[in-house]
Amino acid sequence: MSWRRAKQAATGVAQQTGGTGYCDAAKGEFGGVLTTLPEAPKLSVLGIQEGNPQISVSIPRVINSLSILVCKLERVLPAEHVAFELVDGNNKSPLTTLKLISGCNLLFHSSALALWTCFVQLQDLEINSCDALVYWPEKEFQSLVSLRHLGIWWCDALSGYAKAAPGEPISERSQLLPKLESLTIRDCASLVEVFNVPASLKTMDVCECPKLESIFGEQQDEPELNQGPSADGVASTAVAKLSSSTRDHFLPCLESLSIGQCDSLSEVLNLPPSLIKIDISCCGKLQFLSGQLDALQKLDIWYCQELRSLESCLVQFSTLERLSLYGCKSLVVSLPDGPQAYSSLGELQIISCPGIKSLPSSLKKRLDSLDYDDKELDARYEVGPSFIVGIQSSCGNGVFLFC
């Protein structure tokens, strides 16, 4: 979120809630560039943009009155200069929205944990361009029992969970954020694994994380030991396995999954049957998908050149409304057939997928009921004259003639 949009949103909420107002430390809306916050016991919305780094010292003093905090600090004091000890962890802050746009490393210092324990009512958290976020902040997240929306953008140092030292037990990863409904992670250059997402999750959007290897995190039933280097010099790694009972209840609320430009992701397994929409694009090493997609309505897979098969995901597709496969050159699949297959289909696109040799009879029959603009196919699938297909995506654009 840009500073302008954040300010507009925060000011609007202040007006709706009757809060004292919006403090902009950079533009001096309280009279010049501020070095400390004014006395405002009813202040409900606070925006801090750049300004004097001394302003960050005042955050703990006002946190118990705020409902929204938008913070963008290019220069901050070291965390030891901020009086986090003044925060009473037993006082539960009314804060519902926290947006850390940049330069907010001090909130991830060990001394700031007391502040996070106050955030039990926080529902919307955005972390943007935070260099101090190297591992998933498990301790900070433990208190966020009301959080529903989490967005993480441009945190280039974030890699995943902290690693256990050789010979030490791998601690069981506690389930965090029990009410989380939407998760967005974008442009995190070092991210290897997503944290163990909770069963409450409904939408997930992960894009431009080139080192990402695990999309759902490890779902471990029991902790294992990291054995360190073995006798032959090869490090042994604990591999998490889902028990059948865990798999049956894995992400039962997830409805929408979007993955884009994650070049190291090779597989996405155990997709839950609750999914309604899947959009995967430009994942050059993705080879395998698996799951039981009984409720799926929209399936878009573009430019995944190494994707080999979808058969472990395919059901009768009686609920499918849109099927779009484009540029998946290694995909070899027999699309499902049956009396109820494609009965809800309204849009179809299969382009540059040479491994799909033919269409099933039920899908061919459905083609007759689709409008010309709702079907885009390589000419070998279509009886009749060739036609022009326009393609636009995040990976490129153009107009192609298929004959």
Question: Can you describe what's shown?
Answer:
The chain is built from six helices and 20 strands. The protein is mainly β and 403 residues long. It is elongated.
List keywords for this structure.
single chain; 403 residues; mainly beta; two-stranded antiparallel ribbon; 10% helix; disordered C terminus; LRR_dom_sf
Short summary of the structure?
A 14-stranded parallel sheet has the order 1-2-3-4-5-6-7-8-11-13-15-16-17-18, covered by helices on one side. A two-stranded antiparallel ribbon has the order 9-10. A two-stranded parallel sheet has the order 12-14. The chain has helices at 3-17, 59-62, 113-116, 138-141, 244-248, 361-367, and strands at residues 22-24, 45-49, 68-72, 97-102, 124-128, 149-153, 182-186, 203-207, 228-229, 235-236, 256-260, 267-271, 277-281, 288-291, 298-302, 322-326, 347-351, 375-377, 387-393, 396-402.
Seen as an oligomer or otherwise, the chain set is single chain
The low-pLDDT segments are: 12-22, 25-32, 219-248, 383-394, 396-403
| Helical coverage, percent range | under 10%
Helix segment count?
A: 6
SSE ordering: HEEHEEHEHEEEEEHEEEEEEEHEEE
Shape: elongated
Instruction: Give the strand content.
Output: 15-25%
Provide the structure class: mainly beta
Question: What's the number of extended β-strand segments?
Answer: 20
Mean pLDDT: 77
End-to-end CA span:
44 Å
Which strand order do you get reading across the main beta sheet? 1-2-3-4-5-6-7-8-11-13-15-16-17-18
For the biggest sheet, the summary is: 14 strands, parallel
Radius of gyration over alpha carbons? 25 Å
